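Hypothesis: this fold can be encoded by more than one sequence.
Test: take the structure tokens below, design a sequence, compare later.
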């Protein structure tokens, strides 16, 4: 089978062969190419020692030279070239204590996690597949190279990688590999929160975010973080069939079923905050924040998820149907509903508000009409250009200072009162009208 290799990768492989060494594209890039996907990056494995690789190319970086890895720069892109190696023991359950360079490609492929990641390729040899990776690709199976217990004992992060690849590729996890997940789960204690979070995030961002449920099903949950178990406490009726997470949940409404909610989440944008919010939607926002902090998520994501989760169960009583009726029956009620909508809009960014509506619309079919009506009213207010932000209010802090108000809490209070007035009646958003409010202030 022929794989289309980028010109720069082909050039690197050719230069190494011209120097008398073996060289292959290896790992995930070969897997993705065989699946018809565009690889994110191209890793290279070689019989050359690191110092020998460095003599072949004019510009290299010692990125992991103790483990045999040198980065070669070509057209401003870095390509990692690693010497064939045999890993020693893994005392910490994460990293080899030592590595031994070898001239045997098969020995290098043997140390890798899954068969689908243990293939190499060059134009001269075609695909080198010593462990049945191509067959497993055809069968849509995630299977460890050799003994699953040995592979997972070497590096506990691999059990989360199995879940992640299952979700990303839509593959089943082979039976012996699946059984080993539960046995090795306690070894996640040796893995940093940051590395665990990266794997869970990639799982949630995949085409099958519901497969994160395998973390609970295989007993990994207690070892993810202190509070992470709270995600699954409502899921006592969760049962599964098969090793890839083909799951049925009974006795709950769709929105209360985490598995069903995550199945629907596959239709959401592949954005970190949105997908984490889908997982945590039924929790209190403070619990969601605690989980994300334990998982070392970035602050921007935590803030966004807090907002999305905090408002996920809102009813949005200012829907357009009610407003339309009120405009005919009770103008005061209509104005109150629009005021409530503007006030809500003032407390959340436009982008996050749109994501909130999309989140609810996607995950909770019982509230589709409600959220669509609320979104229609928001759209009406936006098109009309009503002020819903201090940034677009006609009066600024500098205006108040020029009119004799000293900087400080009092200035903030006056701005807040003006903004409240504008939220209630957008027609008040004129500098002259708002500055008249100062007459009473200065009189005091």
């Amino acid at each position: 089978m022929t794989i289309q290799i980028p010109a720069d990768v082909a050039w690197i492989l050719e230069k190494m062969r011209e120097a008398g060494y073996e060289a292959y594209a290896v790992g995930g890039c070969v897997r993705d190419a065989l699946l018809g996907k565009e690889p994110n990056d191209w890793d290279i494995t070689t019989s050359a020692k690191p110092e020998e690789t460095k003599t072949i190319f004019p510009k290299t970086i010692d990125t992991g030279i103790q483990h045999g890895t040198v980065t070669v720069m070509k057209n401003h892109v870095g390509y990692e070239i690693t010497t064939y190696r045999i890993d020693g023991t893994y005392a910490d359950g994460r990293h080899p204590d030592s590595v031994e360079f070898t001239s045997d490609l098969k020995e290098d492929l043997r140390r890798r996690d899954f068969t689908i990641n243990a293939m190499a390729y060059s134009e001269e040899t075609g695909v080198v597949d010593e462990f049945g990776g191509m067959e497993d690709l055809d069968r849509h199976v995630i299977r460890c190279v050799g003994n699953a217990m040995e592979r997972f004992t070497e590096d506990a992060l691999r059990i989360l990688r199995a879940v992640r690849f299952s979700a990303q590729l839509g593959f089943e996890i082979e039976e012996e590999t699946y059984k080993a997940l539960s046995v090795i789960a306690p070894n996640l204690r040796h893995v940093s929160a940051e590395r665990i979070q990266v794997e869970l995030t990639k799982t949630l961002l995949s085409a099958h975010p519901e497969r994160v449920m395998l973390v609970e099903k295989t007993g990994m949950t207690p070892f993810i973080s202190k509070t992470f178990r709270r995600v699954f406490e409502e899921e006592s009726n969760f049962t599964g069939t098969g090793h890839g997470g083909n799951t049925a949940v009974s006795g709950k409404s769709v929105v209360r079923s985490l598995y069903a909610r995550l199945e629907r989440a596959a239709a959401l944008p592949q954005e970190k905050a949105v997908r984490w919010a889908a997982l945590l939607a039924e929790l209190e926002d403070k619990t969601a924040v605690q989980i994300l902090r334990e998982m070392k998520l970035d602050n921007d994501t935590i803030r966004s998820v807090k907002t999305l989760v905090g408002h996920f169960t809102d009813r949005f009583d200012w829907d357009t149907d009610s407003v339309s009726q009120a405009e005919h029956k009770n103008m005061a009620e209509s104005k109150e509903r629009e005021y409530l909508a503007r006030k809500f809009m003032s407390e959340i960014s436009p982008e996050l508000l749109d994501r909130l509506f999309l989140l609810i619309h996607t995950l909770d079919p019982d509230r589709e009409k409600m959220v669509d009506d609320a979104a229609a009213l928001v759209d009406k207010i936006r098109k009309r250009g009503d002020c819903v932000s201090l940034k677009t209010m006609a009066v600024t802090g500098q205006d108040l200072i020029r009119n004799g108000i000293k900087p400080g809490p009092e200035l903030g209070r006056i701005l807040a009162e003006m903004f409240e007035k504008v939220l209630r009646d957008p027609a008040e958003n004129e500098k002259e009208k708002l500055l008249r409010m100062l007459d009473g202030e200065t009189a005091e």
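The two ends are 86 Å apart (CA to CA). The chain has a mean pLDDT of 90.
Hypothesis status: open.
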